[in-house]
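Hi Y.,

Following your request, here is the sequence exactly as I used it, all 242 residues.
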Amino acid sequence: MRTVGIDLAAGLATTAASVIEWTEEGAMLFAPRLKCTDKDLLRLLQELGEDDRAGIDCPFGWPTEFVRAMAAHGAHQPWPGRGQGSAEYRARLRLRHTDLVVWEALRPGHPPLSVSFDKLGAAASRWAHLADELAARGRLVDRTGSGNIAEVYPRAARIRWGLDTQRSMADLLAAAPWLHCEDPVRDAYDRNEHAFDALIASLNVRAAYKGLTSLPLAEHADFAALEGWIHLPEIGSLTKLP
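Below is the corresponding structure, written out as C-alpha cells. Let me know if you'd prefer a different format.
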C-alpha cells in the first residue's frame, strides 16, 4: 500500500506532499513534492488505490456554531449569541469538537489553531475546493476519515510519538529504523519543514489505517461528520506502523 501525506496551505510555496510505499520489508520514503498545485494534489488523491490512504494536514470543516452564526449574520437574522456575553460566545466559535478533544489529550500544550479565527481558514477553503472537485470526479471525502482520506495534525502526532523537540530526520529514523530512504531524500526533508510535516502526515494516516488513532465517540459523531475529525495517534504507536 501507499500512504500520501499533504501539508496543505493556502499558497503553493508552503504546500508539500510525501509518499511512502509499505511492504513486508518495511517502508520506502520518496522525495518530497514541493510547491504543489491543486492539479498536483488532485492527481495524487485521484490515484489512491483501494488500500492506499492519504492524510491531510488541514481542517476538513468549520465549528458548527461558527457556521450557524455566519449563516444567521448573512441572512440578517438575530445573532445566535444575543443575550450572552460577547467574549463567552465568541469562544464557542473558535474551535471544533475535535480540536477540543485533541487539546485535552495534549494538555498542558497549546490548543490547535482556530480554523474560524485564524489564517488557517484560507487553507481550509482550499481544501473545501479540492474535496468538492474530488466529489465531482466520484471520490467522496468522509470528513470523519472513515474512507481513504483522513484529517491529521502532524504537530500532535509528533508529540504522541516523542518527536516534539524539533523536526529532525535523524530523530525520526532513530525511532523508526524500518523507514528507508536515500541520503538526498533524507536531506530534502530536513531542509523543508513543510515536507517534514507532510511526511508525518503520511505516517499518521498509516496509524489510522491500522486502527491506532482516536475515533469520534457517540456524542461527537454528528459534529465530526460536519466539522471533520483529527486522527490523533495512540501514544507510542510509531513502532507499530510496519
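Residues 120-136 form the longest helix (17 residues).

Thanks again,
Q.
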